[in-house]
Amino acid sequence: MSNQNEQQWERVQEQVFRNWVNSLVSQKGIGVVNNIKTGLTPTCFKEFAEILVGKSIGKKLNNGNGRIYDINNYSEILGFLKENNIDVAGCSAENMADSESGYKFILGMMFSLYRKYCICRSVSDESNNFKTGNKVDSMIWDWVNEKVQGYGLHVDNPSTSFGDGRIILALVDSFMGNQIYQSYQNCTNEERVKKAIEMAHENMGIEELFSVDEIVRCQTDERAMMLYISLFSQVFKTKEMMDKQNMSYVSRERETEEVMKRQQQEIEEKEKLLKQQEQAFEEEKRAMNCNLQEQMEQQKIEHQRELERMKQEQENMRLEQEQLRQAQLKELEEQKQQMMKE
């Protein structure tokens, strides 16, 4: 393998792993890691390891300065990873403390971690069962072929298949929803590659790890290209997860709307029933009022009749008394006249 390929492989690893570390440790307020070789300090590496494992190491690092302290701290962190069944690819605490001479070991460990937590999880749903001996590059190329088969494309040789830019453009087009691929079929390879990597950066946030010339001339290291394409798989995976979350949200929103609709219908039905009950009550009330009014009128008439009857009886009694008095007066007058005759 040429020295140029090795340098490119090292450069691409540095860029990818540095961005990955920064994307995680920035959540903890750790400063930006400028490079993996010297920036992966014990403090930064501890935070990074805890995020990967999902729990705390449970002890503080030694605050002393110097190589011995660094080796002890790195040893604690590497031991923590191993205890949680995470392969560190033979990287030792001494390699990390002597980062200049141990740089390749550090990159090897970072590739192992990146492979487990990023690549495998983006192209397989069974990343936890993925063994170290499996070919991660085969998984990546299988994933690419699945994505671009609808465009009539295929990765035959990772070293040469990307030279015309069509596969990268197809990945971007697939992500964007089939908007751009056909527009760049009649341009030169240089123009197509340039547009593809630019749009991947603008629309997918994928860093331009190669120059246009490196891709067109097929001067890309196969491992480096695999890392570059793995960034696409991660973006697609993130989009799929977000789409699922959105679908779940939409589904929950629809369910909520249905529940609210049913509740509104129940409220309307209850309001309708209540209104009917109120109307029935009013009608009953009016009927009762009518009956009561009729009863009162009838009672009034009966009372009036009773009063007239009583008045008539009183008048009759008065007449009878008057007649009796007249009869008595007449009788007295007759008696008086009789007595005068005698």
Automatic annotation (TrEMBL):
Domain Calponin-homology (CH): 134-237
Source organism (scientific name): Entamoeba histolytica HM-1:IMSS-B
Pfam families: CH
Keywords attached to this entry: Actin-binding, Repeat
InterPro entries: Actinin_actin-bd_CS, CH_dom, CH_dom_sf
GO function term, MF aspect, one: actin binding
Keyword Flavoprotein: no
Protein's name in the database: Actinin family protein, putative
Coiled coil: none
Spans annotated as Disordered: 297-321
SMART domains: CH (SM00033)
